[in-house]
Design goal:
Layout lengths: L2 H4 L2 H13 L2 H8 L3 H15 L4 E4 L2 E4 L1 H30 E6 L1 H18 L4 E6 L13 E6 L7 E6 L3 E5 L1 H7 L19 H9 L18 H9 L5 E4 H10 L3 E2 L5 E2 L3 E6 L7 H21 L5 E2 L2
Helix pairs in contact: 2-3, 2-4, 2-5, 3-4
Length: about 300
Amino acid sequence: MKLSRKYPLNALRVFEAVARHASFSRAGEELGMTQTAVSYQIKLLEETLGERLFLRQPRQIVPTAVAERMLPPVTKAFDLLDEAIGQARQVSNRTLEIHSSPTFAAFWLARNLGSFQLECPDIAVRLLRATKITDFNRDPADVGIRWGVGPWPDHDCHLLGRFSFEPMLSPALARSFGPIERPEDLLKLPILGARQTSWLRWFASVGIEAPDLSGHTRHDYVEQDLCANAALAGQGVALLNHLFYADDLASGRLVAALGRACRDEIGAWLVFPPSRRNTAKIRAFRHWITTAVAADMARTEPEGVMDVG
């Protein structure tokens, strides 16, 4: 039997307030209840116990011996419940669970979360790579980093950025192939993640409409980080975002094939339920991540980026 059926918990809470105040009206004021509702709850509890709890006398109520024996353990029980709820809230407020798209999680968020934790040392972070859309009604996530064309209904959505991208490959593959002078030259190389629509958008931005990429299915990767790892290993050319791989370009681990970058309508978004927008840990994270991504974009985005639809 459920505890709420065995013992009328709401009636017990009302009993504790009435006994403490020695007044139905003052108990009602504390609990936000009418005096009639308070009387009903006391009657319900008395019927459950089969005992009188209060004697109604002119201008006062007097607890019975049964009520006097009940009050200390009932008060202690509610104190323990309040303590348990308080501890649960403290744990919840100290831990921020983030569900992020895989590439953003691995190649930006994990590398930069240290600065958030320096700013907010009281907040612990749990980061998960999410390959499906986070359902905040079922998943324990506090916030999500979603990749796509937003905003989405029933969510608070904050655009972090739309990041430029261009074909990148390893220096060894570039040397073995020879000079890459025209966009058409890329079609002679293994194209990584060729089914990604961003490839068609990039080729369109350089004047090649609907190139035939059907022969480039050997490395049919969906996630950008998989394409990048294959490109770093010299297995082909990948379409990569500057935000994630600017350091690899700067160090020479990757080279830009043609120096022709573009940007489409797909972006990275911070999302969370509207009901949680004023939660302190979410507000702190939103401020940090929007500021940090903007600063990194200013550092990594190349000049002359073409916007494509």
